[in-house]
């Protein structure tokens, strides 16, 4: 959407989840959350030289790989941008998925509403203080 900085974490994540070249990240069945295969994600996007995914049609450089080299750093970014892990094993609840997929949600990250990406802001100490001040003033 207009006004969204293409280099932000939410914009990169949006492009990855919608890229046919990325197999480790996909939408959940309601298109309102992310399903992430940790081991495949580490191979595709976090490993040294991960800018090239091999195999299959459309193989080639993965767009917008993250600078993180550890999965825990990626999850920290998700948390800083307001994503929350959905409890439970999604593999058993989602047809065609094996166990081991992690499920994350953010109310402003939906496949059918790219305009909501503008609402996703990184949580910082200053942002938390502004939110707290706004709640106390009500």
TrEMBL record:
Pfam families: HSF_DNA-bind. It is found in: Nucleus. It comes from the Eukaryota. One of its GO terms (molecular function) is sequence-specific DNA binding. GO terms for cellular component: nucleus. Residues 5-123 form the HSF-type DNA-binding domain. The keyword Nucleus applies. Keywords: DNA-binding, Nucleus. Belongs to the HSF family. This is HSF5 protein. It comes from Polioptila caerulea.
């Amino acid at each position: 959407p207009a006004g969204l900085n293409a280099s932000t974490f939410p914009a990169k994540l949006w492009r990855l989840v919608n890229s046919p070249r990325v197999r480790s990240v996909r939408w959940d069945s309601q298109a309102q959350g992310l399903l992430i295969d940790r081991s495949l994600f580490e191979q595709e996007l976090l490993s040294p030289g991960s800018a090239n995914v091999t195999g299959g049609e459309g193989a080639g450089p993965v767009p917008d790989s993250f600078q993180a080299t550890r999965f825990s750093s990626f999850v920290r970014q998700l948390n800083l941008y307001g994503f929350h892990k959905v409890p439970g094993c999604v593999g058993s609840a989602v047809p065609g998925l094996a166990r081991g997929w992690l499920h994350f949600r953010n109310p402003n990250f939906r496949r059918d509403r790219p305009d909501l990406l503008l609402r996703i802001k990184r949580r910082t100490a200053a942002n938390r203080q502004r939110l707290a001040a706004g709640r106390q003033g009500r």
